[in-house]
Amino acid sequence: MRHEITGVDARSAAQRSGLMAGDLLLSINGEEIIDEIDYQALIASSRFDVSILRNGKPMTISVKKQEEEPLGLHFGQSMTLSPRTCHNNCVFCFIAQMPPRLRETLYVKDDDWRYSLMMGNFVTLTNVSDAEFDRIIKRKASPLYVSVHTTNPELRCRMMNNRFAGDIMQKLTRLKEAGIKFHCQIVTCPGWNDGEELMRTLRDLRSLAPAAQTVAMVPVGLTRFRDGLEQLRGFTGEEAARMLDMIAPFQQECRETIGTTFAFPSDEFFCLAGRPIPPEDWYEDFPQIENGVGLLRRFENELEEAKHFDSLWGEPEPVEPKTYVIPTGKSAAPHLQRWADTYAPEGVKVRVIPVANHFFGETVTVTGLLTGGDILAALTPEAVEGADEILLCAVTLRHERDLFLDDMHINDFIARAPLPVRLTDNDGQAFYDALHGRFDEQ
Cα–Cα distance between 106 and 223 in angstroms, integer? Predict the structure, then answer.
C-alpha cells in the first residue's frame, strides 16, 4: 500500500532525514506498510530505510534517530485504523440488547486485534485470517486482550453462535509459543459457562501462564430488550457467593504455583454476594481495572491518598457548608454513601440517590449505563429537598461529556435539573476534591 505523508514535524527525525509532505510511503526496510501497526513496529528501531515516491520517482532515505524518539510523520486516511466488526452473535451480546433509535455509534460491534493491542479492547480472535494471525506473531503484538468465555470448543461455538469459534486454545497456545502475552475475559452466564465449565476454563488458561497473565470474570449484563434472544438470567446473590467460594482454592493455588491470583472476579460479584471488597494487594497491579476488577478498591485508595496529601498542607481551610445530592447506580450507592460519610469535611452533607435504570431495565445497576432521563426521574422533590447542588459523575456521559446514552444533551439535563449540577471525574481524587468544594472548570 502507498500512504501519503501529509505533514512532517519540525526538527523531527523525519525532517532531519529529508522526508517531506507529499511523499508517498512505500515500505520500511523493504516491508509493506498495511496500517499503523506495521508503521509503529518498523520505526521503533534507531536505524532503518524508508522507501518513497517523490514526484513519481522512487527514492530510499536512511533514517537515524533515538529508539524512543518519534519519527514525526503524519498521514491521511490510508493509515487510519477502521474498526473491524464482530463475526459472532454471542448469546450475551450487550449491543444486541440495545433499544432502537439511538445514535449509530452505540451499535458498532468491533472485534479488532489492532485495537486490542493499542487500546486494550477485548477481542475474540474469531475474525482473524491466517495472514493476519501471522502478522500478530510477526509484529509481536503484546499484550493482547482476549474474550475467551470458555475453552470448551463446543460450548464456545454455541455461546458465540459461530461454528469457527472453537479453536481458542490452539490460537492462545500459538501466541504463547511466539512469546506474546495476553489477558483474558470470561462473561459468565449462569447455567452456561459457570460451575465446572468455569473451572475447566480457568485450569486451561492457567496452563498457558505466564503468557496468560490474568483472567477476569464478569457477570452477564441483561437489559429488558431481549425479545427473540436466547433465554439467559443474571446471578443471584447466593450464586455469586458460591462462585467466589468455588474459585478461592484455585486462586490460592495460583498464588503458590505461579505467583499471582490469576483469576479475578469483577467488583459486581462481591456486590451481589454482599462480600467486602478485597484489599489493594489482592488486586496486584490492577491489570483488569477496565473490566471492573478493583474499581471500588482503587477509588477508595485514591480517596485515602487525597486525604493524606491534603493533611500535609496543615490545617485545612474552612469549607462552605453544603448538602450535595449524588445520583448513582444501585451497585455503587452503598459504597459511595460510606465514602461520603467518611471523607466529607465538617459542614458538608451528602445524600446518595440510587437510580433505578428504567431505560435498560432494573437488572442493570452500574452508574455508567444510567441515562439522563432516569437520573432526572430519581431527583424527586423529596430526594433534593434542602440540598444545594447535584454532583454528577461524568462516567454517565460519553467521552466528549455532552450526551447521555439516551441522547439527552448535558445542557438539557442541567436546564431540567432541580438544582445546580457539578460534573466530577470517576476517581477518588476528584470525588474528594468535590466534597471539599474544589472543582475543575468544565
Answer: 15
Query: How far is C-alpha 131 from the geometric centre of its chain's CA atoms?
Result: 28
Query: Residue holding cell 509503529?
Result: 40
Report the relative pairing of strands 322-329 and 389-393 from DSSP bridges.
parallel
| 344 backbone dihedrals φ, ψ, rounded to 5° | -70, 140
Mean pLDDT of 80-105: 91
Region 287-314: mean pLDDT is: 92
The answer to whether 159 and 192 are in contact (CB under 8 A) is: yes
Mean pLDDT value of segment 199-217: 98
pTM for the predicted model, two decimal places: 0.90
337-346 pLDDT, tens digit per residue, is: 999 999 999 9
Instruction: Please check whether residue 226 is in contact with residue 361, taking contact to mean a CB–CB distance below 8 angstroms.
Output: no
The span from the CA of 172 to the CA of 153, in Å, is 13
Q: How far apart are CA 375 and CA 361, in angstroms?
A: 14
- CA nearest to 73, candidates 35, 141, 23: 23
What is residue 67's predicted lDDT score, i.e. its pLDDT?
Answer: 85
Coil, helix or strand for 362?
coil
Nearest 10 degrees: Cα torsion 35, 39, 40, 41: 110
Alpha helices in 317-409 (DSSP H): 333-343, 372-378, 381-384
Q: What is the dihedral of CA 185, 145, 135, 180, to 10 degrees?
A: -100
**Residue 280: burial class (beta carbons within 10 Å; 0-12, 13-18, 19+):** middle
* DSSP one-letter code for 96: G
Q: How many CB atoms lie within 10 A of CB 137?
A: 15
Q: Which three cell numbers stand for residue 245?
A: 467460594
Asked if 141 contacts 180 with a C-beta cutoff of 8 angstroms, the reply is yes
Q: Where are the alpha helices (DSSP H) in 81-129?
A: 113-119
> Are 47 and 63 within 8 A, CB to CB?
yes
Distance separating alpha carbons of residues 259 and 270, to the nearest angstrom: 23
Average pLDDT of 188-192?
Answer: 97
What is the distance between the alpha carbons of residues 39 and 32, in angstroms, rounded to a whole number? 9
pLDDT at 265 over 80: yes
Run of H or E including 212: strand 212-219
Q: Which residues contact 217 (CB under 8 A, 6 or more apart)?
A: 186, 188, 198, 243, 247, 263, 264, 265, 266, 269
Average pLDDT along the chain: 94
DSSP string, 159-204: HHT-TTGGGHHHHHHHHHHTT--EEEEEEE-TTTTSHHHHHHHHHH
Closest CA to 164 of 116, 197, 134, 124: 124
